[in-house]
Structure formats: structure tokens, C-alpha cells
Amino acid sequence: MKKYKVAIVGATGAVGREMLRCVIQYHFPFESIKLLASARSAGKTIEQDGLSFVVEELTENSFEGIDVAFWSAGGSISEKFVPYAIKAGCVNIDNTSHFRMDPNVPLVVPECNSEDLKWHKGIIANPNCSTIQMVSALKRLDEEFDIERIIVSTYQAVSGAGVAGMRELNDQTRAIINNEPVVADTLPCASDKKHYQIAYNCIPQIDKFDLANAFSKEEMKMVNETKKIYHKDIKVNATCVRVPVLRGHSESVYIETKKPIDIDKAFDLLAHSTGVELVDDIANQIYPMAIDHIGSEKVYVGRVRKDLDNDHALSMWVVADQLMKGAAYNSVDIGLKMIEMGLL
Ligand SMILES: NC(=O)c1ccc[n+]([C@@H]2O[C@H](COP(=O)([O-])OP(=O)(O)OC[C@H]3O[C@@H](n4cnc5c(N)ncnc54)[C@H](OP(=O)(O)O)[C@@H]3O)[C@@H](O)[C@H]2O)c1
């Protein structure tokens, strides 16, 4: 089997660390792994599964001889450096939002639309974390019942804002317990004007707002990316909320379908969907919770129930570790799928 020279860009970040773990633990066939980050991290050592790596500074020349690069250093970094990687002949799987809606770039969740990998031109985009777990959970239901509309509310962990988001929740919680002043400088959006306390709080803003339609950019990612992945004009209404959870996004998802819902069939489909695990036994108070699925590559679905008034509607609770299924694992899975399809 061919082995690949791999690079991970943003390797010191919340997603990048999981990318390294996924490449090794999910057996991506690597010959070498180059870890890249900013000049601040150059020379730093990262250990994973008994292997030791020295982080290098990302430069225009980092990709000579690299076969495949996994990117998670932010949109502006991908925008600037991916063209150099393409010039060097490297295939790029990008976790940032920069290329996602580019019509020349496939946006892929392997169990939903792996066929789109066939028309890549050197870049494959990894969707937004909240989108991935939702479209993955709903894929088989859409095939069976034809979803027309999704209404989703998210409960998103602070690690969605990277290492800084986790630090902020931990620091604020410690400060509150020790009766010290609370400092807020990262959430809801590091580059925005105002910052709010996340400890013991929920913030109904993720990313900046589009003042023209009153939705946040995170909400619009769910709207637009779902259409691109499902190849249909599906209606999506999203409310994205940051909650004081360290890791793992939860979503309350309501769907309206063209065909009436057969609830037994719905349970059967969810129980046999690729990458999805049904955790639903309300008689014994069993349902998915973020804290139970840290580090897992799966999407967990529970609280599945038909709408009381609409025969064409269903509600459910969808949980995933967004650093894994929503980012690192989905990216590595794209790479593995490309090898399986003879595209890498
Ligand atoms: N967190 C999530 O749940 C999630 C999910 C899906 C997608 N994403 C996307 O993935 C990307 C990274 O997110 P994250 O949460 O991992 O952020 P993070 O924890 O803040 O990590 C950012 C990474 O980017 C590197 N970086 C920053 N500036 C750089 C530069 N000038 N040159 C090279 N490397 C640079 C950092 O290196 P240093 O340590 O050297 O600064 C670090 O490795 C973002 O685009 C985000 O939207 C995140």
C-alpha cells in the first residue's frame, strides 16, 4: 500500500492536535508527518502515540514533497498558503470556512456525498462542525422521507473557539469559585467589539452577525452548507448558541418531510446509518450527552420523537465531539475515502 507524506497546518491548535491523533489512530497510511504552525510554535515538541514531532513554521516552501495536507490554522492562512501547496502538487483538505462555498471546491462529509470528491481540483473543504453532525444524522432520513425543512438550535462547546475558548471557560470558572474578577476577551467572537462571560451563561451568538438578515455567520454556514452537501434546495433555520461545555456540540433538530414519517422506520434507519449511533432509551433515561462522547468519531442521536400535530415532522437530539467528527476525524476520513476511491 502506498504511504503518504502528510502535513498538518495549525498542528498546535485544538483541531490540529486531534488531526495528528486521527492520522495515527485511524491508520492513515503515512510515510512522514510534518507539523506546521506559526513562528511562535516553531521548535516545540509534540508527542502522540509514542512518536515525537518538532513543529515547524509554516512558510511558502513548506509543501515541497508533501502529498496531502490537513489545514486548520484559520481561513486567512488557508487563503494565503493553500495556493503554494497546490503549486507543489499537494492535495489539500481544508477545515476552515475559506473555500467551503467556492463552486470549484467539493464540500464533503464522506457518508453523505463522497461522490463529490471525484471533481476536486486540489482542495476539498471540510464543512462547519455544526453542519457535519446534523447532515450526517439526517442523511438516511432524507433519502427515505425527503426532508423539506430543518429547524435547528445548537448548544456549542467553547472548544469550537479553539484553545482560547477552552482557556476562557476554565479561567472564568476558577475566578468565580475563588471570588475573583471575571475576565472576558474571547467570546462570542474574538475579533468582535464586545466580549461576554461564558462561565455559567449561554451566549446566543457564534461568529459575527449579518445585519441585513439578522442571522449569524455560523447560522448561515448551516443554511448554505447543508444545501451544497445534499445537492437540494432544503430550507434550514438555525439558531447557534455557545454554552459552557468544554467539548462536544449538541443540537435540537426538527425536520419536516415530504413523505409522512414512519417512526419505526426512522428508528431503524438511524440505527443503521453509517457513522451514527442511536442512543435512545427514555424509559431508562438514556440519551446522548456531550460529556459521554469526547474523543469519539461518531454522531450520537437520541430523544427521537414524532411531532404531536404534524405527521410529516420529527424531532431529535444530536451530539458529536465537534473537534473529531466536526473537524479532525471528518478531514482524515475524507483522505481515507479518497485513497479507497483511488483519488489520492
Ligand atoms: N474548534 C473547532 O471545533 C473547529 C471545528 C471546525 C473547524 N474549525 C476551524 O479550524 C481552524 C482552527 O481552529 P482551532 O479551534 O483549532 O483554533 P486554535 O486552537 O486557535 O488553533 C489555531 C492554529 O492555527 C495556527 N496558526 C495561527 N496563526 C498562524 C500563522 N500565522 N501561521 C501558521 N499557523 C498559524 C496556530 O499556531 P500557534 O499555536 O503557533 O499560534 C494553531 O496551531 C479555524 O479555521 C476554525 O474555524 C474549528
Task: Give a structural overview.
By secondary structure, this protein is α/β, with parallel strands linked by helices. It has two domains: 4-127 and 327-340, NAD(P)-binding Rossmann-like Domain (Rossmann fold, 3-Layer(aba) Sandwich), CATH 3.40.50.720; 131-322, Dihydrodipicolinate Reductase, domain 2. Helices cover 30% and strands 25% of the residues. The strands form four sheets. The chain has a six-stranded parallel beta sheet with strand order 5-2-1-6-7-8, sandwiched between helices. Strand 6, helix 2 (75-87) and strand 7 (91-94) form a beta-alpha-beta unit. Helix 1 (14-25) crosses helix 8 and helix 4 packs across helix 8. The structure holds NADP nicotinamide-adenine-dinucleotide phosphate. Residues 10-16, 37-38, 40-41, 58, 72-75, 77, 95-96, 129, 159-160, 162-164, 322-323, 326-327 line the site of NADP nicotinamide-adenine-dinucleotide phosphate.
Write the layout of secondary structure elements.
Elements lengths: L3 E6 L4 H12 L4 E8 L7 E4 L2 E4 L1 E2 L10 E4 L3 H13 L3 E4 L15 H4 L9 E3 L3 H17 L1 E10 L5 H16 L31 E2 L4 E2 H14 L4 E8 L6 E9 L5 H9 L4 E3 L20 E8 L6 E8 L3 H17 L4
Parallel strand pairs: 1-2, 1-6, 2-5, 6-7, 7-8, 9-12, 14-15
Antiparallel strand pairs: 3-4, 9-13, 10-11, 13-16, 15-16
Helix pairs in contact: 1-8, 4-6, 4-8
Bound molecules: NADP nicotinamide-adenine-dinucleotide phosphate.
NADP nicotinamide-adenine-dinucleotide phosphate (NAP) binds next to α1, α2, α5 and α8.
